[in-house]
Amino acid sequence: QSGASNFGEKFSRVKFSPSLTLFGGKPMEGWIAVTISGLVTVSLLKPNGQVLTATESLCRLRCRVALADVAFTGGGNIVVATSDGSSASPVQFYKVCVSVVNEKCKIDTEILPSLFMRCTTDPARKDKYPAITHLKFLARDMSEQVLLCASNQNNSIVECWSLRKEGLPVNNIFQQISPVVGDKQPMILKWRILSATNDLDRVSAVALPKLPISLTNTDLKVANDTKFFPGLGLALAFHDGSVHIVHRLSLQMMAVFYGSSSQRPVDEPALKRPRTAGPLVHFKAMQLSWTSLALAGVDSHGKLSMLRISPSMGHVLDMNMSLRHLLFLLEYCMVTGYDWWDILLHVQPSMVQNLVEKLHEEYMRQNAALQQVLSTRIVAMKASLCKLSSSTIARVCDYHAKLFLIAISCTLKSLLRPHFLNTPDKSPGDRLTEICSKITDVDIDKVMINLKTEEFVLEMTTLQSLQQLIQWVGDFVLYLLASLPNQGSPVRPGHSFLRDGASLGMFRELMVVIRIWGLLKPSCLPVYTATSDTQDSMSLLFRLLTKLWLCCREENHITEPDDALIDECCLLPSQLLIPNIDWLPINDGIISKLQNKQLVRLQFGKAPGLVGHTVSSQFDAFVRAPGQPKIDHLRRLHLGAYPTEECKSCTRCGCVTMLKSPNKVTAVKQWEQRWIKNCLCGGLWRKMPLSYS
């Protein structure tokens, strides 16, 4: 429901059970395969590493399987579709149930209704398309709809079928004996054809959309109005090099792409096109992205190509309609956790400010629990959006720092343990947040007295292993307070933190925790270079931080810092050495370099020598120069100008971290396990060469 404000109403979740569960309903890992001889094999991976394997015939009369596809039902069953490759033979469907009995994998199969393609029953086309070349369910979680393609040497035809429940008519004789009333009418499952194409060029590959059909306009009566949703379309690649986007149900043409070898008028009949001497370059395999705004394919020459699919499908849309559509897809990715890289391909620099503001407005309408779940994902989205415009690029550093702050806060609070097992409802971390928000005293020791310090006791090795993260907190607080007198410059990284009461509150909580830990092990405290040996740097910073936090703790009532606070912050550079914050590269990603919509050629293993939007000289201080000392951004360890350790880099934000952990402490492992799959911004990792510059 695109008009609803609550994400729970806008995107309703359909109950979908796993095919096999462990204790407590946890899904079991495994895979299923269909063999060419008509067998189905299942392998299950148990938590202890043991693999259970079973093989069963799909039916009693085994036959050759040339094509097969697998889909899943909401009830946990698996549906397998098979074809022997001949259009004269039926397309068979089977329900597969997997279970574990006495520590052995068991497979039960059941035959479902089959179908013959419409083209084989049409007298005019009976022998025209002898082979079925493509067989695919319309979605991995939709076993009721299937796409079939039959071909000859030069042409193809595509059909879309749907499995429906239909009432079985009862003979009048039996009606008189026992009348059928209402729901008692017997029902049968029957395949019905939804749509079919006319004669097409030979299809070489098919790509299906991943968006649920419920998110798109499924009314066939308005199938021609395809401006609003590319998720409606599936992609068909042809041997002449062209790609057609057609409606996923009506199979009507929505858009067309011609490769360099297939330029021709769109209305030219297929029969009149001259045949070339050799085969044209065409796609052999294709995949649509999560929101169907990009298409990746491998062609017959082994090249990987990526096509941008316009949300408007070539129609001219006003800015408000485009913004509304992109915002809807960003919200969908935020709720589901899918990557939103393909949406960024269509965001123009002029859209960024509006998208970020509207995304924040929608986020603030959600309840507190959902906001907490989505808190890091929306910050990562904002960071990737702001990279696309030179007017918002300064905020990228702030968003990355906020992600890092949230991660540190969650990790350090998770280390706190209650002193007694029969604890009250709130955890030590929750009590810390509550007490720090209630007690507004500027003296850190007075705030600390109100806490149960026994809940903060940790092993000495653990405290020492966290020193690099603690140092970052201390350095960032000092940097923020020292930059307060320059708050009129929005270009300066850290500017948004000066009005962010929630983030300043997090820093305040962490300062209290660090103070307590410093009493246990002084060497874990952040190191400051002060001009006076007697100065208590943490008390000074906490006092100034609290005054700044009091100015913006209420989001709807933000006041300006008074002159006394600004004067004290002006004196900080004469009292403490202000650290250099290692900001992430502003323009490392490739997405921002594709905005001019020109053809870009890349080569595997070579960094793209592309020029994106120019970064003005005011950002030069935050762009890493060759030969400059490098830092592990996640562990906060210095790597030197030319690191000798193997590192990995985020493909989205440029964050660099070592592949192997230099520390064996459990708390550090817990921190590092957060970043095994993705960077803190949600980007994927790539391995970097040694001594990278």
Automatic annotation (TrEMBL):
Keyword Cytoplasm listed? The answer is no
Domain Mediator complex subunit Med16 N-terminal intervals: 3-260
Tell me the ranges covered by the Mediator complex subunit 16 C-terminal domain, including all copies: 591-687
Query: For the Mediator of RNA polymerase II transcription subunit 16 central helical bridge domain, which residue ranges apply?
Result: 329-517
Recorded GO cellular component terms are: mediator complex
The answer to whether the entry has keyword Nucleus is yes
Protein localization:
Nucleus
UniProt keywords (A-Z) are: Activator, Nucleus, Repeat, Transcription, Transcription regulation, WD repeat
- GO biological process terms, semicolon-separated: positive regulation of DNA-templated transcription
What's the domain of life for this entry?
Answer: Eukaryota
The entry assigns this protein to a family as follows: Belongs to the Mediator complex subunit 16 family.
Q: How does it assemble?
A: Component of the Mediator complex.
- Record's function text: Component of the Mediator complex, a coactivator involved in the regulated transcription of nearly all RNA polymerase II-dependent genes. Mediator functions as a bridge to convey information from gene-specific regulatory proteins to the basal RNA polymerase II transcription machinery. Mediator is recruited to promoters by direct interactions with regulatory proteins and serves as a scaffold for the assembly of a functional preinitiation complex with RNA polymerase II and the general transcription factors.
Could you identify this protein by its name? Mediator of RNA polymerase II transcription subunit 16
